[in-house]
Amino acid sequence: MTALPEERFPSRRSRTGPSLCHDGAFVERPLTMREVTEDDLPELVRVDQEAFPDDPYPYFVLRQLCDLHGDCLLVLEDGKSLHGYVLYVTTRDGYRSWIVSLGVTRDQRGRGLGRRLMLEVLRRLRGEDVREVRLTVEPANAAAIMLYRSLGFSSDEGVRHDYFGPGEDRLIMTLGL
Ligand SMILES: CC(C)(COP(=O)(O)OP(=O)(O)OC[C@H]1O[C@@H](n2cnc3c(N)ncnc32)[C@H](O)[C@@H]1OP(=O)(O)O)[C@@H](O)C(=O)NCCC(=O)NCCS
User: Fold this and answer.
1) What is the 3-state secondary structure (H, E, C) of the chain?
2) Residue 161 included in any domain
3) pLDDT band per the 50, 70, 90 thresholds, residue 18
């Protein structure tokens, strides 16, 4: 499958994920970003469970998200395993897009993968003339909030109480494109 255009602009940080080679040493595999395929489902479920251990999507939900929005679900893979994914969905009028989910496996965090996924989404949305991007994030999720702020998202709307049901408050963040 063809790599996405952002692959032409490697991140200044590591673009690779570690893996064990035959003699037990760690080798680096280059990471590629691409749209999800049906064959990715088991891996996608694994990555989602690792990213959201307390509240992962059920298999059937991820299956249906892939069927409905697979062209907006990007994965980072090393040729063997997936290491992260992002899903965004744009409203029918094309005005606003929501980042529905973003997750990176625990062992790959802090290596620029989350930023890479988000930058590719924003690049695509700008090209599609989408005007605004929104997302929700747990108010205590400092790493995610720092990432979104560094990309220009603001949280003027503040926290919405019980947004995802009782006790599930979420900070709403917005970026104008
Ligand atoms: C949030 C998440 C996607 C970030 O992915 P990542 O690949 O680790 O992030 P990156 O390495 O690209 O870092 C991007 C920025 O995020 C922020 N960040 C990342 N990890 C951080 C940490 N532990 N503490 C504070 N800020 C952090 C920094 O601003 C960082 O930029 P910098 O490295 O230039 O300082 C990842 O931690 C994750 O999957 N968490 C579990 C699932 C989740 O919370 N998803 C978001 C739901 S809204």
Assistant:
1) CCCCHHHHCCCCCCCEEEEECCCCCEEEEECEEEECCHHHHHHHHHHHHHHCCCCCCCHHHHHHHHHHHHHHEEEEECCCCEEEEEEEEECCCCCEEEEEEEEECHHHCCCCHHHHHHHHHHHHHHHCCCCEEEEEECCCCHHHHHHHHHCCCECCCCEECCCCCCCCCEEEEEEEC
2) no
3) low
Nearest-CA residue for atom 1 of ligand 1: 144
| Domain count within the chain | 1
Tens digit of each residue's pLDDT (9 = 90 or more) over 85-131: 999 999 999 999 999 999 999 999 999 999 999 999 999 999 999 99
Atom of ligand 1 nearest to the CA of 105: 39
Q: With a 6 A CB cut-off, is 114 part of the ligand 1 pocket?
A: yes
**Ligand 1 contacts CB of residue 110 (under 6 A):** yes
- Which domain range does residue 106 map to? 5-130
